[in-house]
Structure formats: structure tokens, C-alpha cells
Amino acid sequence: MAYAPVVSVSVSVRPNEVRQPIEGFGFLVPRASGLRLLGGLFMSSLFPDRAPEGRALLTCLLGGVRWPEAVDEPDDVLVARLGKDLEVTLGLRGGFDLLSLSRWPRAVAQPSRRHQELVADVRKEVARVGGLAVAGGWLDGVSIADTVSSGVRAASMIAAGLGR
Predict the structure, then answer these.
(1) How many Cβ atoms are within 10 Å of 67's Cβ, its own excluded?
(2) How far is C-alpha 128 from the chain's CA centre?
(3) pTM of the full predicted structure?
(4) CA angle 8, 12, 14 (to 5 degrees)
């Protein structure tokens, strides 16, 4: 399976230097925007006390299929691009403090057009073995919830096979 790379950048901003309120979960940036920023999480809104008084913590994602070369770009190029994209999306006026930057070359699974057919074939073969199940983010979805559900289903199938 192919994977899209992602760069995660955590920054600290002053909420009074941002046009959009730093409230709620975060934001997504539509592909049609032409920006390299995929979206951001308002970490200090989600988790109180993650930022000092007068600051907000954002974790922003760059790259994906929109800009796969991002993982190979120097830090200064990524930080400059993030600044420009945050000016457009959030109205950031005062800049930010860089806290961390992480590269994830194989971050988001990109299923092929035949993915569901291949998954059905794998499940059929595994069912023939008995007492075996498959689980993971590659099966039915890449979100944490999808992956956890996959593991719970697999564990339930194995437990049922053991008579528990």
C-alpha cells in the first residue's frame, strides 16, 4: 500500500495576533485553496494547560498527497511555508514560536481503487484458517477509531472461536 508523507509542526501563537478564534478542535484546509497546509489542531483548546497563559498551542500538518516532497524540505522552508499558510487560514499577524517539527514519511495510507476487493480476499483466506483474524488501519479506515474498531472486531472473532 502507498502512504502519503506528513510533516507535523507544533507552534505557539498569541491568540490576540490571530484573526480567527483558537477554539474547538481545529481546522481543515480544502485542497482547492492551493495551500500546502492540510490543517491544524488547537491543542491548547482541546487539552487545557498545554500552553502558558497568553499563548495557544497549534499542531499543524503539511504535506500529504498535496505536497509529498515536504518531508524532504529543510526546516526553514517548512516553517516559512507554514507561516504564509497560517496568515491566509487563520489571519496570523504576529508570527509564532516553533516548538517541534517531525517528519512522517509513511503517515497516511492511500488505498488503491481495488483496496476493498483485496481486503475481502484477505479476509476470505484468513477465515479458512480458523482462530485467526486480521486487524489494522489498512483494513477499513486510517483513523484511530477505525483502527481500534478493527482490533476490537478481530479480538471478538478470536474470543468467539475460543468459546469465550
Answers:
(1) 20
(2) 35
(3) 0.80
(4) 145
